[in-house]
Structures are given as C-alpha cells and as structure tokens.
Design a protein that fits this description.
Layout (H helix, E strand, L loop, with lengths): L3 H6 L4 H16 L4 H23 L6 H5 L5 H12 L4 H6 L1 H13 L29 H16 L6 H15 L6 H15 L10 H7 L3 H10 L3 H31 L1
InterPro entries: Fido, Fido-like_dom_sf
Protein name: Oxidoreductase
Organism: Sphaerisporangium rufum
Length: 260
C-alpha cells in the first residue's frame, strides 16, 4: 500500500531528527515529578502552549495575564482550543473534519462572523500573519483537505511526529477556514502527537518550541510550500526540534514543581 508519510520519513535527516525528538520526550516522561503531578504539568503545558500559539498569530500576552483571565481575543481563542483538546482525541482518528470544525469554532469565536465558524471558506483567507503569500483558492483547498483527511485516517508506519508536522503545515498554508487557521494548525499538531502516541499525556509544549525557533517557523513553512524533498524534510526537522524544545520547557516545569 502506498504510504506517502513513509516517503517523507525517508528524506535525509528526517529519521534522525525524529529519533532525537523521541529521546527528548522519553527523557521528560521519566521525570520523577510526573509520578504524582502529571496533570499539573499537562495543564501548565497547555497554558504555555496557548500563549505561544497566540504569539505566533501576532498576539503576545504575558502568562500572568492568561492566568488572570484577561487575555486578548486571539489568546482567548487559543485557550478555548487548548482546553478542548483532551475531549477530541478519539474523534480525531476517525472524523478529523468534525474536529477541525470544532477547533475553528473555538478559536475564531469573537473574531469571525458567527455563520463562518467551523465552515470552510468560500473566498480568500482573511489574513497572512506569517507572510506565506496568498492561500490556494477554495476548490484547490478542498481537494487538499480531502487528501489530508485520508492521510490522518489511513494506516501508516510513519512516526507520529511526521504526521503531526504534515497536518500542521497543510492547515497553516491552506488556511481552510480563512480566520484563526494558525491556532487550528498548531492545535491539530499537538492533538496528533497525543493521539498517535508520541506524547499521550499532552506534556510537550511544542508551540513554545516553535516560538523559540523564531523566524525559522515561517521560513520552514515557506520551504514546505515549495513541495521539494528539501523543503518538506526541512519542515519536519523543524517540528522535531520544536518538540525537543517543548519537552525541555515541560521539564523545567517539572523541576520548578520539585523545588516547590
């Protein structure tokens, strides 16, 4: 059976990067604080991830403001999405369109027309915060979204991180809803890492990793858009490093809890 994810995994450098990320996640999961305080670390990872995802949309809100419940609308959307992920895992494997619609409704409430929430766009995308250029038209987007759904639901031997990276990139470049697509893309990446087994407790703040890599985030997506092995492989390697950095962030949370 044809497995496009296996072909991506075979791109030079991808397998090694994925293994390094796996090692970083395994190291995090061995931290002694997780034996009794894993839910606290997961909650903190979700909070930090929401903040980072909003920052990548151009809204940088301090963690203290998020904790106080007074974030900007984009950050509110990121928080709503983050709080819902734990209930969407099983559905993600079987009905990803349904999950994406729900994520968009959560992310875009307050910043998009009510009638557009969870619905595919029928015109141009509303914004381009990463400078990726115009999104594909609605028909081309619909065709690629169908392919993405097949990729998520079909069996594959590829690592979860490879699937997560492709899910993230496709949603980020297609901008299927026209608003808040970056929030949806990053939430879908985390959901894939959780549901497909790399990070089952949702401890890794991968969004923080993307922010920490600075301009490489948008550069990686622009490389992905070229459709070459170098561009796609470079994006997957970027996501692997983001996972490593996200694991490091959550390790720091564990150690802060250990110090009391």
């Amino acid at each position: 059976m044809n497995d496009p994810l296996a072909a991506i995994t075979a791109i030079p450098g991808v397998s090694d990067a994925v293994q390094e990320a796996r090692t970083a996640v395994d190291r995090l999961y061995r931290h002694r604080m997780l034996r009794r305080r894993s839910p606290e670390v997961s909650a903190e990872s979700a909070l930090r991830g929401a903040r980072a995802s909003a920052a990548l949309e151009g809204t940088d809100v301090p963690l203290a403001a998020l904790r106080a419940g007074e974030p900007a609308p984009v950050a509110q959307g990121a928080l709503r999405v983050s709080s819902e992920l734990g209930r969407l895992g099983v559905t993600w494997r079987t009905a990803p369109r349904q999950v994406l619609a729900r994520l968009h409704a959560l992310a875009a409430t307050g910043s998009a027309a009510e009638g557009s929430l969870g619905r595919p766009r029928t015109g141009p995308a509303a914004g381009d915060p990463l400078g990726l250029g115009p999104a594909p038209g609605p028909e081309a987007t619909a065709a690629r979204m169908s392919s993405l759904v097949t990729l998520i639901t079909a069996p594959s031997q590829a690592p979860a991180l490879v699937l997560a990276a492709i899910v993230h990139a496709e949603l980020a470049v297609l901008r299927p809803f026209g608003t808040a697509d970056g929030l949806v893309a990053r939430a879908a990446e985390r959901l894939t890492l959780v549901e497909f087994g790399l990070d089952p407790k949702s401890l890794v703040a991968v969004e923080v990793g993307h922010v920490a890599l600075g301009a490489a985030y948008a550069e990686g997506l622009r490389g992905y858009l070229k459709g070459t092995a170098e561009g796609v492989g470079g994006w997957v390697r970027h996501c692997a490093v983001a996972v490593e950095l996200g694991a490091r962030e959550s390790t720091a949370v564990c150690e802060a809890l250990q110090r009391g």
